[in-house]
């Protein structure tokens, strides 16, 4: 049994913890249906007692000084990946949602290697009547106040991604990246974030670039947020690299990745969008790709390329595409489904074949829910094949660099090997690099020399072909 977190009760007599103590088959019940339990401090070995639960799963729990229990979690049965994480109060035998009209994830869902990937749950009581938490909002992650009376208030409106929140003496502090600045501790004051530290900012200051947000209209009626990092001395139109986030139920935001800064420094424009499936735009936007991953988000990414060409940013013959994990999936998908659009690609730790991924990933039953619909099984070959990028990758003629972490349990090496074998057997320009022992997010937490090697290979590849 995995205990996800533990908290003291206000009287100090019990310890509350979040875990799934009832499911006996993790393979069949993913995601786990965690709930809040408690055990008495003075009775070792006592059976845990249930405290509160949600229809989906609980991610965190916090007691107020007066004993009110707040829950953070998903209220939809099965806790689907597209669902918002919401805030609830335990009341009697049930729960009451706070801020039900907000329609935003109450957590940070924005990725990046300048953003702490292990920040955990950010939820705290300000006083007995108010909680504070982080809310994902169109690429940003900002502190909000949630009143027990039902009131909701955004406490800051910066172009920032916050990853941790804390309270003390009636005040609120966060760890935040402000656009292209690395994370710093900030005080939340008068509707803004005031930096209290500068340790990360000092080393990156000479290389800092603040992306510009643009909103791209799509023929389907929605808009696609995209951030633009201008290449140093790069012409317009000029070479452009499109970076796609993973998840796919995650987000990009105003904070760039180091690879974006490196590419811009090498004279290549960078665009990074939030297509359908991204979080922070409401559940309907995130759910839009449910069961049909590849089509709506692929269309959104292709539309961003069209827009960049029409705006005079991108040379249509010098557009590249790259991404990690779900971004690697989409990179491989786009190269096969939109042949001729891209001049080069870099696919890192991708998913290529959903059937073999079902049997080799550490999230096997996630395959059906995320990619081809609830209840889908790998024997449903038409659905799984239709959503597998390897099926069309033979149509790609653009040079492709495949980066693979050998210790990746989420997207194992067999996924990359399949794409490499198909393209290699057809004499297409393809290279594969494997990093021994590295895990899925080497880009953010890997050995420093290998992270540098990765950056250099990405920049060299696009410099060579764009």
Helix content: 10-25%
Q: What class would the helix/strand composition place it in?
A: alpha+beta
Number of strands: 24
Q: Could you tell me the mean pLDDT?
A: 93
Distance, first to last CA = 50 Å
Strand residue percentage:
25-35%
Largest sheet entry: 8 strands, mixed
Radius of gyration: 23 Å
- Tertiary shape: globular
Helical run tally = 12
Strand order of the largest sheet: 17-18-20-19-21-22-23-24
Low-confidence stretches: none
Describe the model:
With 466 residues, the chain is of the alpha+beta class. It has helices spanning 26-29, 199-204, 258-265, 283-287, 296-310, 326-337, 354-360, 366-372, 381-386, 413-425, 442-445, 448-465, and strands spanning 5-8, 14-19, 35-40, 49-52, 57-63, 69-74, 86-91, 94-98, 123-127, 130-137, 140-147, 152-154, 160-168, 171-178, 184-189, 192-195, 212-217, 223-229, 238-244, 269-274, 314-324, 344-348, 400-405, 430-435. The strands form 5 sheets. Strands 17-18-20-19-21-22-23-24 form an 8-stranded mixed beta sheet, with helices on both faces. Strand 17 and strand 18 (223-229) form a beta hairpin. The longest helix is centred in the C-terminal third of the chain and has 18 residues, at 448-465. The chain starts with a strand and ends with a helix.
Give a quick precis of the structure:
This protein is of the alpha+beta class.
């Amino acid at each position: 049994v995995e205990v996800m977190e533990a908290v003291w009760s206000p009287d100090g007599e019990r310890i509350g913890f979040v875990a799934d103590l009832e499911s006996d088959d993790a393979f069949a019940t993913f995601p786990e249906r965690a709930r809040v339990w408690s055990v008495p401090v003075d009775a070792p070995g006592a059976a845990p007692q249930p405290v509160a639960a949600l229809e989906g799963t609980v991610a965190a729990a916090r007691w107020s000084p007066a004993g009110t229990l707040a829950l953070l979690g998903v209220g939809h049965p099965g806790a689907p990946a597209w669902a918002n994480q919401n805030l609830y109060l335990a009341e009697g035998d049930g729960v009451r949602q706070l801020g039900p009209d907000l329609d935003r994830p109450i957590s940070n869902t924005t990725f990046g290697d300048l953003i702490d990937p292990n920040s955990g749950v950010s939820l705290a009581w300000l006083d007995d009547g108010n909680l504070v938490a982080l809310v994902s909002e169109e690429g940003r992650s900002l502190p909000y106040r949630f009143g027990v009376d039902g009131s909701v208030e955004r406490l800051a409106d910066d172009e920032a991604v916050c990853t941790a929140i804390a309270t003390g003496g009636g005040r609120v502090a966060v760890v935040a990246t402000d656009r292209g600045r690395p994370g710093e501790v900030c005080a939340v004051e008068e509707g803004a974030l005031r930096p209290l530290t500068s340790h990360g900012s000092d080393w990156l200051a000479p290389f800092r670039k603040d992306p510009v947000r643009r909103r791209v209209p799509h023929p389907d009626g929605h808009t696609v947020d995209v951030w633009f990092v201008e290449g140093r001395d790069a012409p317009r139109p000029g070479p452009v690299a499109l970076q796609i986030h993973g998840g796919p139920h995650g987000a990009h935001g105003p904070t760039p990745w180091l690879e974006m800064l490196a590419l811009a420094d090498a004279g290549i424009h960078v665009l990074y969008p939030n297509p359908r499936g991204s979080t922070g735009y409401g559940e309907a936007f995130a759910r839009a790709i449910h069961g049909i991953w590849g089509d709506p988000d692929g269309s959104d990414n292709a539309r961003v390329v069209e827009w960049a060409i029409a705006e005079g940013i991108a040379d249509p013959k010098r557009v590249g595409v790259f991404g990690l994990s779900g971004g690697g999936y989409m990179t491989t998908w786009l190269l096969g489904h939109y042949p001729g659009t891209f001049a080069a690609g870099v696919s890192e730790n991708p998913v290529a074949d959903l059937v073999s991924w079902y049997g080799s990933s550490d999230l096997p039953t996630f395959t059906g829910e995320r990619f081809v619909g609830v209840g889908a099984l790998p024997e449903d070959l038409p659905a799984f094949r239709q959503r597998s990028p390897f099926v069309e990758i033979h149509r790609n003629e653009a040079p492709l660099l495949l980066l693979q972490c050998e210790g990746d349990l989420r997207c194992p090496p067999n996924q990359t090997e399949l794409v490499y074998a198909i393209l290699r057997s057809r004499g297409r320009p393809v290279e594969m690099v494997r990093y021994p022992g590295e895990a899925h997010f080497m880009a953010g937490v890997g050995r420093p020399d290998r992270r540098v090697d990765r950056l250099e290979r990405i920049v060299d590849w696009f410099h060579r072909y764009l």
